Structure formats: C-alpha cells, structure tokens
Amino acid sequence: xxxxxxxxxxxxxxxxxxxxxxxxxxxxxxxxxxxxxxxxxxxxxxxxxxxxxxxxxxxxxxxxxxxxxxxxxxxxxxxxxxxxxxxxxxxxxxxxxxxxxxxxxxxxxxxxxxxxxxxxxxxxxxxxxxxxxxxxxxxxxxxxxxxxxxxxxxxxxxxxxxxxxxxxxxxxxxxxxxxxxxxxxxxxxxxxxxxxxxxxxxxxxxxxxxxxxxxxxxxxxxxxxxxxxxxxxxxxxxxxxxxxxxxxxxxxxxxxxxxxxxxxxxxxxxxxxxxxxxxxxxxxxxxxxxxxxxxxxxxxxxxxxxxxxxxxxxxxxxxxxxxxxxxxxxxxxxxxxxxxxxxxxxxxxxxxxxxxxxxxxxxxxxxxxxxxxxxxxxxxxxxxxxxxxxxxxxxxxxxxxxxxxxxxxxxxxxxxxxxxxxxxxxxxxxxxxxxxxxxxxxxxxxxxxxxxxxxxxxxxxxxxxxxxxxxxxxxxxxxxxxxxxxxxxxxxxxxxxxxxxxxxxxxxxx
Length: 510
Hints:
- The chain is of the alpha/beta class.
- Helix content is about 50%, strand content about 10%.
- The strands form 2 sheets. Strands 3-2-1-11-10-9-8-5-4 form a 9-stranded parallel β-sheet, with helices on one face. It has a two-stranded antiparallel sheet with strand order 6-7.
- Helix 3 crosses helix 5, helix 5 runs parallel beside helix 6 and helix 6 crosses helix 7.
- The protein is elongated, with a radius of gyration of 26 Å.
- About 5% of the residues have low confidence.
C-alpha cells in the first residue's frame, strides 16, 4: 500500500433533490467554473424526491465544459446493463469524453422491489454485477458480429456493439465486502468507496484485499483508480476528527490517504446550509495544498523501475530474444521446418467436424477481423472523407472517437489473438508433441512465431497510445497493422499446412 502516482482529482458529490433544480444546476456549473475535476450524482431511482440521475447528468453535460460527470453509483438492479452501456457511451460522445460509469450491485431492496426490480441476496447481487460488467464491455468493443452471452441475470442474444465511448470510459465500482473488492480488483477500472461506510482505518484493510486480489488476477494494483467520497465539516478545532477542522488539516489527512493508500480522487459532499462555500474552500484551499504536498513527496521518491541502471535488465526482457520486426523476414519463413503428412490426400481444410476444421474456422475469423482493422485504419488515415462515403464500421464517428474506437477494436483483437495463442502453447501443442514427437521442430517454430507476433502487438499498442496524444501518428499505426497482417497471415497459413492433418489423424480435441 503506497502512492500509486495517479493524477489527483477533486470533485463534488451532489444529491439530486427535486425540490430546487436551479440550485442543483448552479452548484454543478459552479464546480465546473472554479476548476473542480469531478461531479458525482447518487442514483436512487425508487426515491420520488430525487430527479432521475441519467437525465440530470445529460442536462449537466450540456451546461458544463470541462468537468467529468458520473453516477455515484448507478443502481444496477433498476438499470439493465445493455441499456446502461449505450446510455453511458452516448453521454460520453455528447460530452466530448467527460463521463465515467460508477456501478453498484444494489441496495435498499424494498425500494428496488417497489419499482419492479428483483430482490437479490448479497451473493446474487455480486454475481449479477459481474455479468453486467461483461455485457457493458462487450457492447463497448467494436466488431461486426452480434454478441451472444448467456447469463443467469443478463444475456445478449445477438446485440450489435455500439455506440462507442470517445475515451477509455472507466467502470468505477462501489465496493466494501471481500467478494465485491475482489470483483473490483479483477474487472474494475476504479474503486469508489464512501467515508460514511468506510472510514480511513477501514480503508486500510480494504485496500490490502483489493491489491492482493489484483495481483492474484494478474493485474497491477495501480491499474485501479481509487476515488473516495468524503463527508466533513470545515468547522471545529484542529484534532476534532477526520475531515472536521480547518482546510489545512483536511489537506494533511487527504495527503496521507494519497501517499499511503493510493487514493487519487476525493469527491466531497457539501453541506446543505452553505454548499457554495464548501465547494470553494475544497477547491481553492484544500486541493492546492494536497497537490503541493503530494508533488513534493513524489519529487523525493526513488527512481522508478524503468529508470534502473543501464546494466540492469528487467526480468520481462529476458523472456525471449527480440527480433527485428521490420526485417524482410522476421518469422524466418524460408527456414521453417516441414513434416511429411501421414494421411494421403489430407488438405488444409480438415475433416468436417474435426479439430483441424475448427482450427481453420478460428483462423478464418482472425483473418476476417484483421481485414476489418485494416479497413478501419485506412478510414481513420483518410480523415477528411465525407461520412456518407465511409463504409467501415466506424463511419459516423468524429476523428477523436475514431482514434479511441480503433484502439478499442485493436485491443479486443489483440486479446482474442493472445488467448488463442496461449491455448495452443499450453494445451494443443503439448498434446500434439506427446502423440507425434516428429512434430517438435514445427511446434517450436510456431511458438517462436507466437513471440514475434506478441512483439508486433506491443508495437501496435504503443502506436495507438501515441495516436491518442498526437493525431499525426496514424502513419505509425498503419505500418504496425500492415506488419501484423503480413506476419499473422503467413503464420496462420503455415500452421494450417503443418497441423490440420495431424490434428484430425491423432484425434486432438482442444
């Protein structure tokens, strides 16, 4: 548990009371004007004295220019995730990328049931939230085919993905108990607890659970933002308790949370009596003190791992010898080993219903999606073509959205390709080698080609990140996609030529 070195953000947690909408709107626009970073709106659809959160967020997005808006947190049992995904993406588009999605498993079940929702046990609520996260992410991942996902609580039966957010829209999960924290660690982009339910002392134990679960899931703890909803008072004397005292004491306590627990977002609920005063003090006095203290501490921090001495080599660099990706023949195609087929007349298509034919089907899907990526890159590179003339799946998006959508599509494709290669390396290849040892040179060659392709994917990811920052970098993305297309097509052809026949003959079932 330490400083995760995330950018600090300060915001307002506003209650959507319906009795005085002009005042609520005034506070939200004030937050934008004085330089706050976030506005969170709680979501209780069963509360008749509250405005509807999504309608309010849309109105506030139209009235503000810079501030990021989010439901704090969306009531999942009353907001179907497929609709929520499209709502959040739409608002992100309309606001120019100023939306995040806070999600909760549900609470106040009598109110949920009164509105026609389903009462769930704590375990059911967590399981439903996990299904919902997958549904939302599926609908934010570009692709041409309808999505099929069978779930106990939420399913997709052919829904097409889209619209797509214009920035990496985060899923911030409100969680406190162990299973919810573990879910947040595995699938969340952010953790969104509140001081009313988790004191700083309790936050220590929760953070330990979150970080441990993230590492066990193969993630780095710093991949998860920590945004803390806080309640306090600027009255009282020094030493009165957490966030009860002068602004300087607030700053000291929040700085400690940032440096010791990695909290980088602080969203304050202002008092009902003098909300404007609270927002101004928090923004103009507390936030600058916290930023200055954290900047000073970070300036004295030891060098990061990537700043190690030149003669030190990070473990990841020792996994395999990198090749020159831009060489004429990075796969060394001319020296590929070949094995004589033992089944006369066996071809690359495979026996109907056999594993060889299934492998070809998977490869054909990879080829088809590779072509879609090439089309998408070509369209983004064109940039100035008329929307009516565009024919790829991202034809009606702004250039900024094109860049993010292209990145999302490429990231999804890279995950699919990496998963396919992992299954081959860990399951299919060992079984083939066990049943026919003469295939060993071919399998070793294919594994080496997997590593080369992984390096190409890394280069593509780096080019996409650079593109988001500088839209003149589309040429680098185009080069990486062309390289990926070339090496992947060659690799898939070679694998089918060498493995389709033995897969069928040896009855490999992976």
